[in-house]
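Illustration: Putative ferric enterobactin transport system permease protein FepG.
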Amino acid sequence: MKNLNQNETKGETSRLGVEPVATSQSGLAKLGKATTQVALESAAQAVPLATGKAAQAALKSRRHILLRLGPYSLRLGVRSLVVALALLVLLTVVAVASISTGAYPVSPAQVSAAIFGYGQEDNYARYFVTQVRAPRIATAMLVGAALGLSGALFQAVSGNPLGSPDIIGFTTGSATGALVAIILVGASPLGVSLGAIAGGVGAAALVYMLAWKNGITGNRLVLVGIGLAAVEHALNKLLIVRAPLANAQQAAQWQAGSLNDANWAWLAWLALALVVLTPALACLTRPLSTLALGDELAHGLGTRVQATRSGALAVGVTLVALATAVTGPIAFVALAAPHLVRRASGAPGVNLTNSGLMGATLVVVADFVAQRALAPTQLAVGVVTATMGGLYLVLFLVLQWRKGI
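Result:
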């Protein structure tokens, strides 16, 4: 009976075109080799090898530099590193041009003498460089970096390319707090800034509570934020319409977003906040990268999904509230900076460093255009970023539509 079953099995396998393998050690070895060969052939058919320029481009996009320091290691993408260096060069060039040009031109030698205190100093040049232009440029850099970082955090948390503080109501909440301080309280500039911080934090807390249902999901966060932003816009308009003329003018000027009131005191507070938040940003980089793979897979990889979202939201809200408190709302930088970084570096996921550099570069370039485009008339930097951001948003939506998204 046993022999009969073996013969029947052999006949079935022969008809299927499969050679029976004995359940011995040599048979298992043959089976392993056969399985490996089939897997290799399937992989070769499924993923054909690129040739020529395509292969070179694929290899270049995957090149990395690995830095090791004891038990710690840091992997840097070559293309991302090139993008970072290019942004630093562009940022430096535009910053020097902003400091050197204007109603009172200052040569590079005078700029160096004013900043570093050597060479032949000019009192007028020293005043314009150290008290007017340098704090303005430095504030533009830090505000832009804060906005770029917050945009990258919000887009990573929401998983939505439109998930920026401009869209989901956090920036508008800061504006509401500032308008309440200006119109209803008649607060000083410090009080207006504190009102902006309180408004941004309050809006974030309200969005978080309304979007919570057994945790936070990206789509729910964006939808609730858009709804709250609409309510805040209506409230802001009501406050301005019912305000006295002088307060309404002050509120409208603040809402435009300007660097005219930049000074070293506010710059020091903003720099201190960025330094304090840097360790939190470093700790969030890896969990946010796994979060982009989906909640279930991120949880399987050991990421605490809800804790990561809550921490990233807290850091992002702090950044955007501080930036808005210093300059007023500067639109679309938080939205555009992470997108531009992803397109330039060609790498998915979260790139906080380059997003901060891109945000700083965008604000510095926008401020240069605002000061020099219609000189001697100066525009608010928020007007320039809103124009640039609106054009970018239209282009982004057209590209998404062509992709069928």
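Reading the tokens back as a structure: The chain has a mean pLDDT of 79.
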